[in-house]
Design a protein that fits this description.
By secondary structure, this protein is α/β, with parallel strands linked by helices. It has 16 helices and 14 strands. The chain folds into two domains: 236 residues, Spore Coat Polysaccharide Biosynthesis Protein SpsA, Chain A (Alpha-Beta Complex); 101 residues, no CATH class. 42% of the residues lie in helices and 14% in strands. The strands form three sheets. It has an eight-stranded mixed β-sheet with strand order 1-4-3-2-5-12-7-13, with helices on both faces. Strands 6-14-8-11 form a four-stranded mixed β-sheet. The protein has a two-stranded antiparallel ribbon with strand order 9-10. Strand 2, helix 2 and strand 3 form a beta-alpha-beta unit. Helix 11 packs antiparallel against helix 14 and helix 13 packs across helix 16. The relative contact order is 0.12.
Amino acid sequence: MSELQNSKSNKLYFKETDYTISRFRKSINPNVSIILPTYNKKNELTLTLQSLECQSFSKRDFEAIICDDGSSDGTETIRFNDFSFPITYIRSNNNIGRPSIRNLGIRNASGDVLVFLDSEIAVKPDFLEKHYKAHMHHDKLVVCGSMVLHGVFARYDPKFNDDQNKILLEVMNEDENQLKAIRNAMEQKIPLQLLDIEDIHTQTFQEKAFEKPFVKIYRDTIFRKFGDHLTGFHFPWLLFCTGNVSVKSKAILEAGLFEEYPGYGWDDHEMGYRLYKRGYSFFNHTELVAFHQEHPIAKSNPKDARKNFVRVYQKYPEIQLRVFALHFIGLTLLELNEVYKAYLSFIEKQPENWTEISQLFIHMLDQIASKLWKGESLTKLAEGCDVSIFKTNRLSHSLLKEEKIRPFAEILRKMIYL
């Protein structure tokens, strides 16, 4: 039994549930444990497991921990014993949420390196080898692959939104037979399987993949400016996305398990922030391209993510975390980084003005968080602050003359007038 399984401190994060565990091809001291939470994704999970079957990494050196969050689509009927690598299948009898079921998987993992992978993401044959090797010469590293993600349509789903349907037709444009079948399925509003096991084993599925839109945005902004090791970027923890990320198991022992937030989002970024505070560095591994099998998107995701951000905001008092609230009033990550740098310069160069201006700034950040939680418009942020708006506005105007402080002064004035 691993230290993770024995760790008593992690019980603070563990939501109790009734569950069963089945083991196929028992693992003996694997180097890597893949944590795969899943819920009603039988078809996608099957193809993901087939992509793991194709790994160049030795089958005896890794295990897959499938964490089924009470699926009702027959996920338990997958023939796990047919795969040539060890699989632990954990099935919760209740739907307890992704971070909770992921924590249950972690507690049953025994690998030195934990790879977090979404159950609908197919990977290349060198996927595990590249994750593992990246950790061999770095003691406190987070290896991130979610920012080089591609998409692939393994099946058509009638619940796809208009954007997904448009991309699907564009991707399949050169395959007349498949395009005709897709159009027919769209008209009849019936699902249609587009990829099979052979496509995974021959790797031909990659020919119909497309780069996710956010990948180019990150590449042209964050990584172009700060590089793949994010030197000088104050928010590297944002790269901790459990769709494709790895850390050594001792990192989880140090930090504790995932916060079990309800709904969608921010449990992974919160873990990333904890690791960042413990001195872990983050690496955008451009060779870890993986393939997200597109599926319908829950309309509740944005609302869930906003509320979970507020939960993280309330947990951490430091400005380096709380300043991220400015992203919700339209600041890009590059702009956020400049504002935080300018804020640090302001504290260093003008400590005599720090108290009142910081009090107003923090008040307005708190207002953003409060309004996000309530679903209110992000306006009138300065209302209710005890400090003089006239005086702080005058001070902020004088700060515009300081080049290194100017980005902070500009956003402060913008917030006052929202």
